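Lab notebook page, bench 4
Experiment: in silico fold of construct C2
Operator: M.H.
Input chain length: 103 residues
Purpose: comparison with the prior construct
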Amino acid sequence: MFGRKKAAKAELGKPRIKVTDKNAVYWQFSWIVEVKNSGGEPLNVGTLTIKFVDNKGFVLNEQLIEGFAAIAGRSKQEFKGATMIDRSLAGRVKEAEVELRSI
């Protein structure tokens, strides 16, 4: 069909994490996640879930980020934040994973 836009399609980048603070109670991990919309229609982001996992893939901590954002077609947006993780678990964090729920 001529002139029809491609539906919104989310592509999630791998979260980048960095320890930005440590103390006797918690470590603070700052994170950045890029979400790309490769479709032509706007992508309505409802929630992002950031999961901090160990070297075997077990989830040590997760954070639900609710904020409604619209990403225009064929564009991208960075989401940034920070999560505090109990120091008894923080040293075992290997990487982060992200899940997206659109509305």
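Observations: Residues 10-102 form a domain with the Immunoglobulin-like fold (CATH 2.60.40.10). Residues 13 and 41 are 19 Å apart (CA to CA).
Next step: discuss at group meeting.
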